[in-house]
Amino acid sequence: MAEEEESIRPEFPIGRVKKIMKLDKDINKINSEALHVITYSTELFLHFLAEKSAVVTAEKKRKTVNLDHLRIAVKRHQPTSDFLLDSLPLPAQPVKHTKSVSDKKIPAPPSGTRRIDDFFSKGKAKTDSA
């Protein structure tokens, strides 16, 4: 029986999962068995999300899974939606072209001062004095 337990290896790199877990300041030590369980659980959860997203993609008659398909799949599964939906990026909104800061006329800074942009740009003069 011990050999069967050893043969189950998650596809995710265990070392990387451990590093991610250690990012939490409350976690000092990680038990080997707990690390394997969390790694395997993460793998199973991502397979679940991929399968549900693929179903939505097929329903939409698309070949590529996108963020909208993932959001729909998460919304359909209540337990997943409860904790994950708020963490997903919002769907892409159509971008309306508005005047950017560079399109607007910006008055010259007062004498002896400079714009904050000049501070962060390399190779430009510190002040525009004439």
Automatic annotation (TrEMBL):
GO terms for cellular component: nucleus. It is found in: Nucleus. The keyword Nucleus applies. Its main location: nucleus. One of its GO terms (biological process) is regulation of DNA-templated transcription. One of its GO terms (molecular function) is transcription cis-regulatory region binding. It comes from the Eukaryota. Residues 93-130 are annotated as: Disordered. The keyword Metal-binding does not apply. Residues 11-74 form the Transcription factor CBF/NF-Y/archaeal histone domain. This is Transcription factor CBF/NF-Y/archaeal histone domain. The lineage of its organism: Eukaryota, Viridiplantae, Streptophyta, Embryophyta, Tracheophyta.
